[in-house]
Specification:
With 497 residues, the chain is an alpha/beta fold. The chain has 21 helices and 18 strands. The strands form six sheets. It has a five-stranded parallel β-sheet with strand order 11-14-17-10-18. It has a four-stranded mixed β-sheet with strand order 1-2-4-3. Strands 5-8-9 form a three-stranded parallel β-sheet.
Length: 497
Amino acid sequence: MLATARSFTLDGIAARPVRVEVDVHRGLPAFSIVGLPDTAVREARERVRAAISNCGFEFPLHRITVNLAPADLRKAGPALDLAIAAALLAASGQLGWEGLDRRALVGELALDGTVRRVPGVLAIAEAARSGGLDGVVVPAANGGEAAVVEGLGVSPLESLAQLIPLASGEWTPPPPRPLRLTGTGNGAGPDLADLRGQRELRRALEVAAAGGHSLLMVGTPGVGKSLAARRLPSILPPLTSDEALEVARIASACGRLDGSLAGGRPFRAPHHTISAAGLVGGGNPPRPGEVTLAHRGVLFLDELCEFSRDALEALRAPLETGSVAISRAASRQVLPCRFLLVAAANPCPCGRGERDPDCTCAGPEIRRYRGRLSGALADRIDIVVPVERPGAEEIGGGEGEPSAQVRERVVAARRLQEARLDGRCNAEMSAGEARACGLEDSARALLLGAYERHLLSGRTHDRVLRLARTVADLDRRERVGEEHIAAALQLRLREDR
């Protein structure tokens, strides 16, 4: 007999439909799976065999062929276990379900028949709704994320044994409670009030958060660079519902969606030993990297000059386009990565800086150390701020301005940008939009003078315009004035860059 079930496999963070065809016919007992399965899918034979037997069903001692269509799409992961088992039970006459072809089944099977959590259920549920299916059968642990998708029936299963009463209508699982994807949440983390003094750094953080601008902090160890970076998410605007759904889809595909996203925007801080593939994505099959996991959040690169040159250079295209393309012989994936880059670096390998008499770093050694940050990548960093050691009065004084007050100004500036740019922030402006941002005559003259005097590149010219537009938004000014260009140049141009 022949039976068919519907399922999905993950391709990056997208869900691709898979039709599971099972044929049971006479012959020597055998169990084969075809259709470009990876190792995890091929091993489903043993999991399905044990689960069917341990749940009280009869495993057919015939020749069993499982075809995963389309045959030219690589199938990866254990999420096809449940669909294979359901189609096998239907083909052997033990499961009668008229609506089997109208539902998608995803889940990993334990040897005792328990249905285990799998990644990517949110993307699978969205794809099932887009494909016109009536519902999805998912592991009970994934029920909440599948229920986020409206207009789709969700049947959470604890065990393979529940398939029979579910198919016959004798048992209907209670509807799962959808995960809460939105919420302020940003105030739950470390507060910016912990940063004592550092007026210039505070201003740079506020401008970066308001316009979505990348930021590089340069200073000796212990002056507060990491402390400031880890408090940046607390002044960012809360995720909108659409942004929260994007973040949840990525977290689900990577198996990181747990409970809710009430904790706010993502914050990723990879170690400096990370490879280029780990940072921007790659592998076989391709997997999202840290830049995609930081989508709509913050990517913090501490000890920037300790990262490999290859890893840093791989950031150039994602910073410009907000996406990363991973090409392989058989496929090409485009993953979103609209993140706010925050980096911290020491002035020299020993960290003390050339001005410190205890610094023993030679000139060539310092140049080699700083050379890991190429000019092309440095040109894509909007703000460069030196971080000095706070004075005794500052470090022993009271707390600084709390995150809640700073966030109010940031949110107000973001609202102006979203109204002007159709939901985008200033860092996402095109070159044409940046040059049409409404400069006063004195501001234009100051910018052109700086362009000639400092030999700025065209990219730097446009990024100064974007920065000035953000400073003007924080001041709630409609036009960009001379003082806004001056502030942007101060944030952008540094002698020690």
